[in-house]
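Morning, I've got a small favour to ask if you have a moment. I owe you a coffee for this, so here goes:

…
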Amino acid sequence: MIADDQYSIIFVAHIDNREGMKRTRKLFSDINKNAKPVAKRDKIIIDEQEIAAIVTRRVYAEYEHFNNGALIILSEETNLSSDDTTHYTNITNLYDVVKILQSLFKIPKGTNEWDEDNIINFKAIVFDFLNTIIGCKQEYKEFFISKTKSLSDLRQNNAYLLFRPVGFTMIAKYMLSLPKETNLIFLRII
């Protein structure tokens, strides 16, 4: 309902003469010509209306196998540096995976994306996905759960894509492309 919507508004006062209107037009023109879009990482960190950004932040902070976010680097880059053996992925890749998984969640009519119930329900879907991939793949179990393998072992010669952001994205895309009943079978063979 429009009465419940909130909008940010900036009022710019000007002197109602030729010089005042010229100054206001210049200000408007400068803002529109020179404004820089917010970086993707920053948008993920500050957006309070997009469900994918909100859920990404919560997964980052709350998902038990990401160690309170320690395994996720807050970088803008799409990929991790080739010598990074500290981070499983980055915040922008996590967001991309959450966006892919968003097709599994339908926002109920009459609600906003950012309503707490929607956030909780969508976050549960993302947690289920993460728990499924970690529970079905032996190397993930050894890294995330038993901690018997390290990222440096798993990324040696950059040969194992499942421990790179591209692999994380690939798993999400493939899971969504398969019929529901074959998702778990696929995960067991990758």
User: Anything to note?
Assistant: DSSP finds nine helices and two strands in the chain. Residues 185-190 have pLDDT under 50 and may be disordered.
